[in-house]
Design goal:
Number of helices: 19
Radius of gyration: 31 Å
Number of strands: 14
CATH superfamily of the largest domain: P-loop containing nucleotide triphosphate hydrolases
Helix content: 40-55%
Structural class: alpha/beta
CATH class of the largest domain: Alpha Beta
CATH topology of the largest domain: Rossmann fold
Strand order of the largest sheet: 2-1-3-4-5
Strand content: 5-15%
């Protein structure tokens, strides 16, 4: 049951609120002094505090309430607090609300307004706790992954990327072909490195070849080797192919969709039998190689169009790891940006907001280039949105990362979407209600102005 702690030196206040809240399935605990209230907080699970501002007779300064508020905040930084004011100067309560208090109400209070405020804050408190639990669980899983596997220094914070990395680690020791799909620049080679590093072949060669970076007439020679004079321009000595070099280890075939049909047929034979011949040779050779392939192409469409062998596809796609584009995992943007900066500069609030708002069609590669450029253009070691020079193309209404700082436009848009309901706008922005009020006050934004 939801629990509210009422701290007021007047027992009648506690009794009245106990009756009021009890009608709405809210459990009420009461304390008549700050000391008693802090003791209850130390031993009970409390969802919200309603506190008086004065506890000594003939005292109206509000200093006791300020001290109590700060004491609660010290031990319970996310606990919603409603201030009850009678003789205290209104400015004192307003300052505490700016500092993070949930709301303030004068005595005697309006029951309907108090209930509405309590319900909103309890709902927001539960959402905040859910977010905190989610973050804690995600940090726990990341620590476990770091302890159990070699992650090759990969930087990520999103749940989507966590699932890909966890699956890559799980399938690493299966020693079966793995197909990594995803857009260019998203980090497919890094995932392949994780698979290899956690496999039984971790200490054996890890050889890579980009099938899209070589002319089609040279790819077969690169993969399987060639005898002297096997093709125009061939060297006068035998050449080992990547399968021979990777024998006993792992071969990473990037952009596998660009492999010509003749090479696909030979690759299929190697996967099925471990046998191949160099170009210009009739001697059959053997290689024990695990193949990890990657592509940004739609292989199913390529199969329909006759550009890719269906039987090869099923040999390569024993396990598929789909790497989402950076635009679908915005929680990774800021950690990656900080990693690319390497302490050369810091990101200000405008830069962080711009980074998260950008759609990153070029994925991690585009982000790295943007950070490199901004680190050279920035002044005094601080990167701003202007230094990044990014166009904000993320769809309206998209949620910000939990670490991003919303700008004025984002706040006003959220309030408009919520039709002035601040708690809803705060949830849309991933902020607490108090945090949104502080930003609105700082920027001079009124809910009625939006």
């Amino acid at each position: 049951m939801r629990t509210v702690l009422v701290i007021d030196d007047n027992p009648a206040v506690g009794t009245a609120l106990d009756l009021l809240f009890g009608l709405h399935d809210i459990r009420t605990l009461t304390a008549t002094s700050p000391e008693q209230g802090l003791t209850i907080l130390a031993r009970e699970r409390v969802d919200l505090v309603v506190q008086d501002m004065n506890f000594t007779a003939d005292t109206t300064s509000g200093e006791e309430g300020i001290a109590l508020y700060r004491a609660i905040r010290s031990d319970h930084p996310d606990l919603p607090i409603i201030l009850l004011t009678a003789w205290t100067r209104l400015e004192t309560a307003v300052e505490l609300v700016k500092a993070g208090a949930g709301d303030y109400l004068g005595k005697p209070w309006d029951d309907n307004k108090l209930l509405a405020t309590v319900e909103n804050l309890l709902e927001l408190s539960e959402a905040t706790r859910e977010v905190a639990r989610f973050r804690d669980e995600r940090r726990r899983r990341r620590r476990q992954l770091d302890a159990d596997y070699d992650l090759r220094g990969i930087v990520f914070a999103s749940s989507a990327m966590e699932r890909v990395v966890e699956l890559a680690c799980q399938v690493a020791r299966a020693d079966v072909p793995v197909l990594i799909t995803g857009p260019n620049g998203a980090g497919k080679e890094r995932i392949a490195e994780i698979v290899q590093a956690n496999s039984s072949r971790a200490k054996a060669p890890f050889v890579t070849i980009n099938c899209g970076a070589l002319p089609s007439e040279l790819i077969e020679a690169e993969l399987f080797g060639a005898e002297p004079g096997a093709y125009t321009g061939a060297p006068n000595r035998a050449r080992e192919g990547r399968f021979e070099v990777a024998d006993g280890g792992t071969l990473f075939l990037d952009e596998i969709g660009n492999l010509p049909l003749a090479g696909q047929m030979k690759l299929l034979r190697v996967l099925e039998t471990g046998q191949f011949e160099r170009l210009g040779s009739s001697r059959t050779r053997r290689a024990d190689v695990r193949v990890i392939s990657a592509t940004n192409a739609d292989l199913a469409a390529a199969i329909r169009e006759g550009r890719f062998r269906e039987d090869l596809y099923y040999r390569l796609d024993v396990i598929e790891l789909r790497l989402p584009p950076l635009g679908e995992r915005s929680d990774d943007v800021l950690p990656l940006a900080e990693y690319f900066l390497q302490g050369r500069a810091t990101l200000d609030a405008t830069a962080r907001a711009a980074l998260v708002a950008h759609a990153w069609p070029g994925n991690v590669r585009e982000l790295k280039n943007a950070i490199e450029r901004a680190s050279l253009l920035c002044s005094n070691g601080v990167v701003t949105a202007r230094d990044l020079g990014l166009a904000t193309v993320r769809p309206a209404g998209a949620r910000l990362s939990v670490d991003a700082e919303p700008d004025r436009a984002a706040i006003e848009a959220a309030i408009q979407r919520a039709r002035g309901v601040i708690s809803q706008a705060a949830a849309d922005l991933g902020l607490s209600r108090q945090a949104l009020y502080r930003r609105m006050d700082k920027m001079g934004i009124g809910a009625q102005q939006v």
